[in-house]
Every structure is written in structure tokens, then in C-alpha cells.
Design brief:
Shape of chain B: globular
CATH architecture of the largest domain in chain A: 3-Layer(aba) Sandwich
Largest sheet of chain A: 7 strands, mixed
Number of strands of chain A: 20
Radius of gyration of chain B: 18 Å
Number of domains of chain B: 2
Strand order of the largest sheet of chain A: 1-10-9-8-6-2-3
Strand order of the largest sheet of chain B: 9-8-7-10-11-13-12
Helix content of chain B: 25-40%
Number of domains of chain A: 4
CATH superfamily of the largest domain in chain B: Vaccinia Virus protein VP39
Largest interface: A-B, 17 and 15 residues
Oligomer: heterodimer
Order of helices and strands of chain B: EEEEEEHEHEHEHEHEHEEHHH
Strand content of chain B: 25-35%
Number of helices of chain A: 15
Shape of chain A: globular
CATH class of the largest domain in chain B: Alpha Beta
Distance between the termini of chain A: 46 Å
Distance between the termini of chain B: 60 Å
Number of helices of chain B: 9
Strand content of chain A: 15-25%
Structural class of chain B: alpha/beta
CATH class of the largest domain in chain A: Alpha Beta
CATH superfamily of the largest domain in chain A: Type I PLP-dependent aspartate aminotransferase-like (Major domain)
């Protein structure tokens, strides 16, 4: 694939995939190709449910619509437009979720046995990628805010130390931001990584809006990072499972395309791709205005939640210049422990009694996700429901576990542990063994245990407490998490 | 030329009113506001294409949502009215000398403006010195109030538009919190007839039942509303809507009404069998949950 500057001037008003699908619709092409539902005719119940306009563009790759595995026309144009909108050297349309973007970052830069420096509070997709490629994690333990019980960003000195101790590492990965909205000093980390001849990768699953806002934290591409996984479907408004993988000038786009094609479908969905195309256009043209509105709403919500009393909706006041270098202004993260309820309990009450679904609740916090689609009247409902939950359920908060960061002891690489001979043990009997699988609350999907880590009593206490409070736990083979697989 | 205004009462049912003239049409920040002049119903206010009131039958709604609680609670002095930008509810409440304060919270200033101009009779008491109009989101307004009203009247549009938030559990909860220990909340509860409306009515009844110790439903016949058959909710911390009706006290006030009577007050709480069953269904599921 060539990446020389092409002659045409990029016009962000264009949406090439969308336009090609519009033309395609008008042509009334007779399908003797897949998908077999043939514009929905073969599946009337599905068509009635999703609508004819939707199933009518659920089509296969063909010349006028390009091919995601080897884009040469409209998909390539859409990718160039996306790169331009995000300030990247190139952008890849991804249809396997940001999970596949994250995995492609890791697989593009790490081989078997390579070291990668990363914070422990990464998404499971990062460690999954290590299982796939056999790279070895070097964890930078994030600082923990004791009051809130959340992991923060990576401190500059810790990253510097990890780099100095592991000069053979190939990449540094940064959450920009974390699920809760915490940003590390990504510009400094990029600089340190590049000085040590390492790549800097950014998980920006929660940072799409950084590229389109005023007064937002720095985006990875602007900071000079080499690759960034951007969940366009989270704050950006595209369909679930669609995502962008951005790369900087130091990365070979052709190599990344090959890596993506190792695991990505050869039947990329045009519903997903057109949603990326249209959403990119929307953000390029109106993103600043949209996110300044969202920012204002989030600021208002924080003030109102804090006015209720008991709750703590945190924001930029936490910024400390290092482990909280910046804070995402559109995140509505609320600490709930002081009203005597675990975050997960508030999360469940909001859904069961108030018909309000928020993003997640953990031991001490909830996160309400504000984005491009929110309106003030729903924010009023959320704040009022929180006020009501406090009035009706507030209790003494002593006895509630605070969420502490548990330092992982990495015994073997995730890949070795995952594929090693193992046996299944009842949870409590597994203390001291090396775990061969993941344990996590989902969401947020940040592992409590990852393959290759030592199981401690502290960790088991935490798992049991989270289960009792109603966290939805995933990862192990045993769905009830009464047993764990450990290395023999 | 024939000009008709039509409104869907259900996906397969349409109600049409002949129109003389379209007097006002405006898209506000919240909704589409229209006022028509019609031969049968006089002036008609529609929000997002749904009839809110007509000069001809507004008295039924406005009297039933106000006099029922006023005849039960012996000393209502501070009242909060939600929605009601047309002024009809305030017009009835302002007839009681005992009332000291009426706070009206309406989100859309354009509704009030349009009604002052085109429905002056309805809006006639909005300038009463006891009336204070706040243009605000009602959830936001009420959230800040604790035990300061004797009566809250929820005069909202239906639960599928900008008023959706006024049919929620959090809304009823903050209303409860804003009422004094013997306070009453009355709300328009929709219609039980068409399926879509009936389900919404059941949902909101369930939420009220789980919030207030006393919660009863009463009915009235309103020709221009869906099925011509409308419900109100009476939710209360202390007073029972029928047992605590003080007929002598209300009659002594000598208020002339066109629809409400104290006999009708009692009768309005006797509901048809199908509706009783619908209400019991959600009341029992709430009781079972406790």
C-alpha cells in the first residue's frame, strides 16, 4: 500500500462510503452474491425489525464499494479523510471493536518474547494480545487515589524507571484516558519512549472527543504517539463495534494492514463502515460545537450531583501534574461510598428502580457516560434519581471495602500461562498458585487477575467481595467463579 | 375548502376537528406549539400535534385536577404546579382565598406567551400576585425543595415527549420529598383505553404506589382527549381522597363549578372493572416486591 501524499485536497464534507452506498442503492443492482438475505427479502422478520433501509445496505465488498482488506477506492478515501480529521498519518477503519484496534497495535509492534511497558489497569484486550503474540508485560503500577479507590495514570518517573530497567522493551502503552477519565502526561511519555527507541501506543477507547474539543486533554496523535486505538462508537456516535486505528509517521502502514488482516473479517460490515464515515464527517464539521455542549452538560451534572451531598462527582480539581496530568471533562465519575452504597449497588438501583442504565459501577464509584447524544432533560433525571437514592437508601459507610490497587506478581508471560498445563482448584485453595486465566468485573473489563499472575489471599477477598456486591464477573472457564484454573 | 386538524389517538384511530383558522404556529426550543380556531371547540391548543386544551372542554380537566385535592386537604396554602403554562389550573386555584402561594414551573416560555395572547380567558389569573412563574426543568426545580408544599399538581403533556421525565419514579420521589407531612400530589394520569396509553398509565401508577402511602386513581370524561376518557392520580401522605372529603367545608366556600361536585368527587373514584384490575395488577406486583 502506498502512502505518498495524493494530489486531491481532502474535503471533510465528503463521506465516500456513504456516498457510494447511496449510489449503489439507486442502481438497484441484482444480487447474485452474498449476503444471502438479498436486501432483506429472504428474511422478512429481520427486515421488519431492522428496517428495509438498513438491511438494504448490508452488502458484500464489490468494486464500487471497495474492500476493507485491501482498500483502493472509497474505503481508502474514507480512511484518508479520517486520518486528516484526527491528525494522523493514516487511519484504519476497524470493524472488530476497539479490541481489534488495541490488539493490532500490540501485534504490530511486539513479537514473542518482546517486552512491553504498560500500566496494570489496561483493558483485557491488551493482555489478550499478549496471549496471542507472546510478548511479556512490564507493569508500571499506577498510583491509587486512596479516597476514591481508583487507579490513576502513570507517573513520569515510574515510566522513566521502567524504561531504564528494561532498555530492551519495544513499546510503552498508555491509557488516554482511563475509564474514569484520568490522563497521564502522554507527551512526556512519548518523548521518553522515542528517546529509548520504543514505540508509544495509546489506548484511546475513551478519548475520541479529545480530537474534537476545545479545552480537552491532549490527544495521542497530537502528543506524537505512534499508534492509537480510538473507539469512535463510544463518545463519537458510530455504531457499536466500529473503531479507528490511527498511526503516526514512524509506523509502516502496509505492515499494520497485514497485521489487521491476520484476525479481521474479510466481510467487513458496510453498516459499521458507513457509520464510521458519517460520524467522522459529523465530528470533523461539528465536533467542537458538539463536545463543548457535552462538556457544559457534564460540568453542570457534576455541580448538581455534588450539591446533593454525600456523592462526590470528581473532575479537574484532582489534577496533580503527574499521575493525574489531566482529567477528561466529559466523564461523569461519581464516588458513592460516603452514602454507604457500593458503586455497583447504585448502578443496580438506577437500572432496576429508575430505568436508568449507566456505564458501570465498581466498588466505590459509578460512571455515567455522557456523549454526543445526551440532552439536558435526561441529565436532570439522572441527578434526581441519585438524589432519591441518597434519600431512600443512605446508610453508614463503615464496613464498605475500599477498592485498593493490588500489586500483581507476574510469574510467567500471559501466553505461557494461558497455554500451559493446568488444573482447576476451588477458589480458596488456589492461594499461592499461578493463575492461567483472567478474572475481571465487566465493565470495566480491567483484569483483577491475568494469566501468569500469582493468586493471593487479598485478591481472593476482593473477588468474593465484588461477587457479593453484585459485580458481574467474567474471565474464568467456570462461569460462577467458584473455581480457578492454575498452573500445575 | 375544508380544513381539519387531526390527531392520532391510537395508531389506528384518528380524531379530527374542523378548523376555521390556524391562529398560531411556532416551533419552540421544546416543542411545536399550535393554536387553532374551531367551530365546535373554540380555540384549541396543541403541543407536538396533541390537543392540550380546548375552550369548550378545558373546564372538566381544570376543575377535576384542582377541586378534588382542595376539597380533601383542609388547609392548602402553598401549591406547586408543574407544566400548566396555559394557566387553566392556576385560574381554578386562584379562586381559593386560603391559597397563599402558587409556584408554576413551566419549561417552555413560548407556551405561556402564546396562551396569554390567544387564550386570554385561560391565562387570566397568571398575573395574580400569589402566582410565581419559573421557567425551569421541573426535576431541577423540585429537587431543591424539601417539605414546603401542601399540594403539587402535575399538569404535564403525555409521557412520550418532553414531559417524559414527569412520569418517572425519581420525579414522584422528589415530589414526595417536596411535600409537607400531609401533602397531596395530583397528576394527570393519561387514559386507560388504548393499549399504548394504558401501559404508560400502569407504569406511572406503579411508580406512584411505590412512593406514596396512599395512591388512588379517579376519572373524568373529556371529549377531546384519547377515548374521551381520562384519569387522574391522587397520591397522598396522609389524607384519603374519599374518606377525608370535607363536603360541608367545600360547599361553604360557595364556588360555582361546571363539572365538579362533591357527589361527583366520590363517584369519580369508582372505577370500571377492567381498570380496577389493571391497577391491582401493578399494586400487587409492588406489594410482592416489598
Amino acid at each position: 500500500m502506498e502512502l505518498e501524499k495524493e494530489e486531491t485536497v481532502l474535503d471533510q464534507n465528503r463521506a465516500p462510503i456513504y456516498e457510494a452506498l447511496q449510489t449503489f442503492r439507486q442502481m438497484r443492482v441484482v444480487p447474485f452474491d452474498v449476503p444471502g438475505h438479498k436486501r432483506g427479502r429472504g428474511n422478512p422478520e429481520l427486515t421488519a425489525f431492522l428496517g428495509e433501509r438498513c438491511v438494504g445496505i448490508d452488502v458484500n465488498s464489490m468494486k464500487p464499494l471497495d474492500n476493507l482488506c485491501h482498500p483502493v477506492s472509497v474505503i481508502r478515501e474514507a480512511e484518508r479523510l479520517a486520518a486528516d480529521a484526527f491528525g494522523a498519518a493514516y487511519a484504519f477503519l476497524m470493524v472488530g471493536g476497539t479490541t481489534s484496534s488495541v490488539q493490532s497495535m500490540v501485534l504490530s509492534t511486539c513479537k514473542r518474547g518482546d517486552k512491553i511497558i504498560l500500566p496494570r489497569n489496561v483493558h483485557r484486550s491488551v493482555i489478550n494480545a499478549l496471549v496471542l503474540c507472546g510478548a511479556v508485560p512490564v507493569y508500571v503500577n499506577p498510583e491509587v487515589d486512596r479516597r476514591l479507590g481508583i487507579s490513576l495514570g502513570m507517573q513520569r518517573e515510574q515510566v522513566a524507571r521502567a524504561i531504564a530497567q528494561n532498555p530492551d522493551a519495544v513499546a510503552v502503552l498508555v491509557n488516554n484516558p482511563t475509564y474514569y477519565g484520568v490522563c497521564s502526561d502522554i507527551r512526556a511519555i512519548v518523548q521518553m519512549a522515542h528517546d529509548a527507541n520504543m514505540y508509544c501506543l495509546a489506548d484511546e477507547a475513551h478519548g475520541t472527543h479529545f480530537y474534537f474539543g476545545t479545552g480537552m486533554p491532549l490527544s495521542a496523535m497530537e502528543a506524537g504517539a505512534d499508534m492509537a486505538a480510538v473507539s469512535m462508537h463510544k463518545s463519537g456516535g458510530s455504531l457499536t463495534q466500529s473503531s479507528f486505528l490511527l498511526i503516526g509517521p514512524r509506523v509502516n502502514a502496509g505492515h499494520v494492514r497485514q497485521i489487521i488482516n491476520l484476525t479481521q473479517t474479510t466481510s467487513g460490515s458496510y453498516l459499521l463502515m458507513s457509520s464510521l464515515d458519517i460520524s467522522r464527517r459529523n465530528l470533523a464539521l461539528r465536533g467542537r460545537e458538539i463536545f463543548s455542549r457535552v462538556m457544559e452538560m457534564a460540568g453542570y451534572a457534576r455541580e448538581e450531583v455534588n450539591a446533593i451531598g454525600g456523592y462526590y462527582a470528581y473532575g479537574s480539581e484532582l489534577i496533580n501534574g503527574n499521575s493525574i496530568f489531566n482529567f477528561d471533562p466529559i466523564k461523569l465519575s461519581v464516588h458513592t461510598r460516603d452514602i454507604g452504597l457500593a458503586g455497583i449497588e447504585v448502578y443496580d438501583i438506577l437500572r432496576d428502580e429508575y430505568d436508568i442504565q449507566i456505564e458501570f459501577g465498581d466498588i466505590g464509584n459509578i460512571l455515567a457516560y455522557l456523549s454526543i447524544g445526551d440532552r439536558p432533560q435526561e441529565v436532570e433525571r439522572l441527578v434526581s434519581a441519585l438524589a432519591e437514592i441518597r434519600r431512600r437508601y443512605q446508610k453508614d459507610s463503615s464496613g464498605l471495602l475500599s477498592q485498593e490497587y493490588i500489586d500483581p506478581v507476574v510469574v510467567t508471560s500471559p501466553q505461557e500461562a494461558f497455554y500451559a498445563k493446568k488444573r482447576s482448584l476451588p477458589l480458596r485453595e488456589s492461594v499461592g498458585c499461578v493463575c492461567s486465566e483472567f478474572v475481571m468485573c465487566y465493565p470495566p473489563g480491567i483484569p483483577i487477575l491475568a494469566p501468569g499472575e500469582k493468586i493471593t489471599k487479598e485478591i481472593l477477598d476482593y473477588i468474593e467481595y465484588a461477587k457479593v456486591k453484585g459485580c458481574s464477573m467474567t474471565g474464568p472457564e467456570d462461569p460462577d467463579i467458584l473455581r480457578l484454573n492454575v498452573l500445575e | 375548502m375544508e380544513l381539519w386538524f387531526s390527531e392520532f389517538h391510537a395508531p389506528d384511530v384518528k380524531h379530527s376537528i374542523r378548523v376555521n383558522r390556524h391562529l398560531y404556529s411556532q416551533k419552540s426550543d421544546y416543542q411545536q406549539i399550535d393554536i387553532f380556531d374551531t367551530p365546535e371547540f373554540g380555540r384549541v391548543l396543541a403541543l407536538d400535534g396533541n390537543v392540550q386544551l380546548t375552550e369548550r372542554d378545558e373546564f372538566i380537566y381544570d376543575e377535576m385536577i384542582t377541586h378534588v385535592p382542595m376539597a380533601v386537604h383542609p388547609a392548602i396554602s402553598d401549591i406547586l404546579v408543574i407544566g400548566a403554562g396555559d394557566g387553566g389550573v392556576v385560574k381554578e386555584l386562584a379562586r381559593y382565598d386560603q391559597v397563599r402561594r402558587i409556584d408554576l414551573v413551566e419549561m417552555d416560555p413560548d407556551v405561556v406567551k402564546a396562551c396569554r395572547t390567544y387564550l386570554p380567558e385561560n391565562a387570566s389569573r397568571l398575573d395574580d400576585s400569589r402566582v410565581h412563574i419559573y421557567y425551569d426543568n421541573a426535576l431541577r426545580f423540585i429537587r431543591r425543595c424539601t417539605e414546603q408544599y401542601d399540594l403539587i399538581i402535575v399538569d404535564s403533556t403525555d409521557p412520550f415527549g418532553p414531559s417524559e421525565g414527569y412520569f418517572t419514579r425519581e420525579f414522584y420521589g422528589i415530589c414526595y420529598n417536596a411535600l409537607r407531612e400531609d401533602g397531596i400530589m395530583v397528576n394527570q394520569q393519561g387514559s386507560p383505553f388504548y393499549q399504548h396509553d394504558a401501559e404508560a398509565m400502569q407504569r406511572s401508577h406503579k411508580r406512584i404506589v411505590s412512593t406514596f402511602p396512599i395512591s388512588r386513581v379517579y376519572q373524568a370524561h373529556i371529549p377531546t382527549y384519547a377515548a374521551g376518557y381520562w384519569l387522574f392520580g391522587f397520591a397522598s401522605k396522609k389524607y384519603h381522597p374519599v374518606d377525608d372529603l370535607d363536603t360541608a367545608r367545600w360547599l361553604s366556600l360557595n364556588l360555582q363549578t361546571k363539572y365538579y361536585t362533591t357527589k361527583l368527587h366520590v363517584g369519580a373514584f369508582y372505577l370500571p372493572a377492567f381498570l380496577e384490575r389493571m391497577l391491582e395488577e401493578v399494586e400487587q406486583s409492588d406489594a410482592a416486591k416489598r
